[in-house]
Each structure stands twice: as C-alpha cells, then as structure tokens.
Write a structure and sequence with these properties.
Length: 336
C-alpha cells in the first residue's frame, strides 16, 4: 500500500477521536478559531449578497467536512444552504450524529465520497466550494484530479484554506500518514482559465487563502499588507511566505519541545511528591533508622515469600488431572 493510500485509510478510520483531538488543540492553537471566524464572516457577506442580487440562497459545499465542524455553525447563517462531503465513513457518521438531531435537513446534505475520482454532483451544482486543511492530505498524484473536480462542481468560486504555496509538491509531515505542501496555484491554473487571489496575511503564515474564480485571468498576492499582480513579484511574495512558514514551524517545534519537557518535568515532580507522601515511603524512611528491625522484617518477608511459592506449587499439583499412561507404557507400580 502506497503512502497516499495509507493516508486515505488513516482518515477513513478516524472519526470521534479527531473530534476529541480538535477540542484539545483549540486550547493552545488559535488558528482553528481564526479559520472559523474568517469563514463565518466571508460566507455571511456572500449569502446576503446572493439573496439581494439573485433572490435565492447561496449553495455551498465543504469538501472534506469531517465531523461537521464548519457545517454546524454555517448552517445557521441566513441565506446559506451548506452541504458537506468526506471520504471517511467514520467522519460522516460522526457528523450526522452530531448535527442531524438538531438539524434533520442536513441528513441528506452530508455525503460520503471516494478519496479519488469523480464527485457525485452535477457540473456547477454549487455556487462556492471550499476546503479547510484538506488538500494537504491529498497525494501529489491525485491533486490535479481533485482540484479539477472542485472546479467542475463550483459555478462561482473555489476557496481553499490550506498551507502555503510550494513550487512543487513534497512531503512536509508524517502526521496522519502524510501531509504535503503543494503548488495550489499551478494546480488551479492547470484545471482551466481562472483568476486567483492568494491572501497570505489574514490567516498567515499558518494558513493561506486561495480564492479561485473560474473563467477569469491573472494572479494577485496579498502579503505584508500589499497586493501585487505582477507575475514575477507575485512568485517572489509566495516564496517569502513559504520561507516565513518554515521559520514559524521551526520555532513552533522548538517551543513545543520546551513545553513538552516542562510538562514532563512537572509530571515527574508531582509523581515524586506523591511517592514521598505515601505511607510506604514514610515507613521505608523510618526503617532506615532502625537497621535491626529492618533486617528482621526483611527476613520474615523473604520466608513468607518462599512459603507462598511452596504452597502454590502444592496446590498446582493437586489441581492437575492424572494423565493416563500411553498404551504399552509401564506404570510406576509395575502394571501396564
């Protein structure tokens, strides 16, 4: 089984445990809350615009919806009809369990899909399709096909909240059997004419927002408060972003290592304190000051331990059934 297939299988077997893991991560990683704030604000504005100009709800698909983290709060936005799909049966089941009791209408809007191949939707079935840290788990050989499918089912826009652009795909992390950095810009350009806006500021450097409008043209990059649409300058800005992300990741790893070491030190100190406060520890320290009594108790303990072994051996022999002698064998009493 290849690395990519192991990655897909890893997520297919992940459901409620990821729900718990994400709750723990949110306590120390604010990027998860920032992603939600961005999506809520962006799609609230889009839904209002859609109702005003087109007189109907905005149809949105989350590709890789997981246990429904975003679908749940986005569903409450007026004028927004949100759908979700995921290749993990465990994730889809978790999403339906968490959401469909409160929102029965979501039951038919959360769909399990295959990790590869055609999505089960018509062309231009949705106005906007979005992903949040999902395409980084798509293998390099499958990225072009998946990007083309997202473009096929989106009539107005594709929005990817993913890791920074890379000039080519490469394995970044072994978590979940593989995390890849990709050339997201190149993948969208290969899928057909489009206009791409890369926002490296709003959620950067951890997450970069790729907004893709089909049938347009050009590339714009927002970095350090300034937009640029010059191709060469845009590529330089994208390169700076990935370098910033590399430095950020290294600092985070170092900080995580220090925090982990401090956590283990605190844990060891608490365990030592607990041991020191135990009756057994206090008794052992008291016996150190009474060597004769300690020697006497030690001898009594060893004798009791040996007697216990003898008793267990005797009980074992009594409990064992008598084995019949093989045919023709001479028994101890001389009879066959």
């Amino acid at each position: 089984m290849g690395g990519a297939d192991k990655n897909y299988l890893s997520w297919q077997q992940t459901g409620w445990d990821w729900y718990v893991e994400l709750k723990l991560r949110r306590q120390t990683m604010p990027i998860y809350g920032r992603q939600e704030d961005y999506l809520k604000g962006f799609l609230t504005a889009k839904a209002a615009e859609w109702l005003r100009e087109k007189g109907r709800p905005l149809r949105v698909l989350e590709f890789g919806c997981g246990f429904g983290r975003h679908v749940g709060y986005l569903h409450r936005i007026e004028g927004l009809e949100v759908h979700g799909c995921d290749q993990s049966p465990a994730m889809v089941q978790a999403a339906k369990t968490l959401l469909c009791g409160r929102f029965p209408e979501l039951k038919d809007r959360i769909t399990q899909v295959e990790p590869k191949g055609r999505l089960p939707y018509d062309d231009r079935a949705f106005d906007i399709v979005y992903t949040v840290s999902v395409l980084i788990h798509v293998s390099p050989e499958d990225l072009a096909g998946r990007t083309a499918e997202l473009r096929r089912v989106a009539s107005h826009m594709v929005v990817n909240l993913e890791l920074p652009w890379a000039p080519h795909s490469f394995l970044w992390d072994q978590a979940h059997e593989g995390v890849w950095l990709h050339d997201f810009v190149g993948a969208h350009q290969a899928a057909g004419p489009c206009r791409i806006e890369v926002d490296a500021d709003t959620l950067g450097p951890v997450v970069v927002i790729y907004t893709v409008v089909p049938n347009g043209g050009g590339l714009r990059v927002l970095h350090k408060g300034r937009w640029t649409d010059d191709p060469r300058e845009a590529e330089r800005e994208l390169t700076d972003v990935i370098l910033e992300y590399g430095r950020y990741s290294r600092e985070q790893a170092q900080q995580s290592g220090r925090e982990q070491a401090a956590h283990l030190a605190r844990k060891a100190a608490l365990q030592l304190e607990s041991i020191q406060q135990s009756r057994a520890f206090r008794l052992a320290r008291w016996l150190d000051g009474h060597p004769k009594l300690k020697k006497l108790l030690s001898g009594a303990f060893n004798l009791a331990f040996r007697l216990r072994k003898v008793a267990l051996r005797a009980l074992s022999r009594q409990a064992s059934p008598t084995r019949p002698a093989p045919d023709g064998a001479v028994r101890k009493n001389g009879h066959q």
